[in-house]
Amino acid sequence: MLLAVLYPKGLLRVINGTDPINVNYRWTSMPEIYEPDVWHEVMKRLSKAALFVDVGGHIGLYTICGAKRMPQNGKVIVFEALPKNALLLRENIQLNNTEKKIEVRELAIGERSGTAWMNEKESQAALQADGGISVRISTLDEQFPSETIDVLKIDVEGAEEKVLLGANRLLADPKRKPKCIFIEVHPYAWEQYGTRSDSLIKILRDAGYALRKLDGLPLNKIEKYGEILAEI
Q: What is the 8-class DSSP label of residue 34?
């Protein structure tokens, strides 16, 4: 409680030396160097983006700093299904006075709608076959029936392909599909979701995307954890 009194406006962190953000006092251990390669690529694309969709927003680092980078009329829609994460996310949004640009949807995103089970690991919250807590789940097609997405970021701890399978109509629409998609891939977790490198890559290539690693090299096979970029 002492930290709450000392930091009523949150703790100031400057992420990667470029993006200031106030975070809830409970995050005293949060590093300021955070995924610098991914951060640079995402942020530079948001300066002209009208709609940024963050699937798996956690406590809002990309969501909030992204909103600050975007044009005045830009909007962020962030999905966070774990209730305790969603609570911190909303608190951090308020601490940064970004409520007008950010909409929080407390949902998991996958290939179907309804309910699903999720573990409670905070930064590694993931869908699972059973156990944990029950959360609502939806699809990108259901959530965005007519909108155009500029930048889509997916961080769902292994269920990456499920998110894409639930976006068939969106990815098939040349006028609406995201200009770029950042995906944190978790091959070590794919077995439980029935995902393979070639199946995930095929979905993206069939939708007209070129795939590459963040070092600029083309991507033909996903073998390890990391970030990949799909661009039209």
A: -
**Phi/psi at 153 (5° precision):** -120, 130
Average pLDDT for the chain? 92
Using pLDDT thresholds of 50, 70 and 90, give the confidence band for residue 2.
Answer: very low
Alpha helices in 31-105 (DSSP H): 36-46, 61-69, 83-95
d(CA 200, CA 165): 9
> Could you give the CA distance from residue 44 to residue 48 in angstroms, rounded to a whole number?
9
Tell me if the domain spanning 33-231 has CATH number 3.40.50.150.
yes
Regarding beta strands 180-185 and 226-231, do their DSSP bridges make them parallel or antiparallel, or are they unpaired?
Answer: antiparallel
Q: Tell me how far apart the alpha carbons of residues 37 and 188 are, in angstroms, rounded to a whole number.
A: 22
Average pLDDT of the residues in 209-218: 94
d(CA 124, CA 105): 18
Which residues, 6 or more positions from 35, have their beta carbon under 8 angstroms from its beta carbon?
Answer: 227
**What average pLDDT does range 73-78 have in this prediction?**
97
Instruction: Using the predicted structure, report yes or no on whether residue 5 has a pLDDT greater than 60.
Output: no
52 vs 122: CA distance, rounded Å: 22
Torsion angle defined by CA atoms of residues 69, 74, 75 and 76, in that order, rounded to the nearest 10 degrees = -30
Q: State how far the Cα of 19 lies from the Cα of 83, in Å rounded to an integer.
A: 26
Query: What is the model's pLDDT at position 119?
Result: 76
% residues pLDDT > 70 (the chain): 92
Strand partners, 11: 23
What pTM, to 2 d.p., does this model score?
0.93
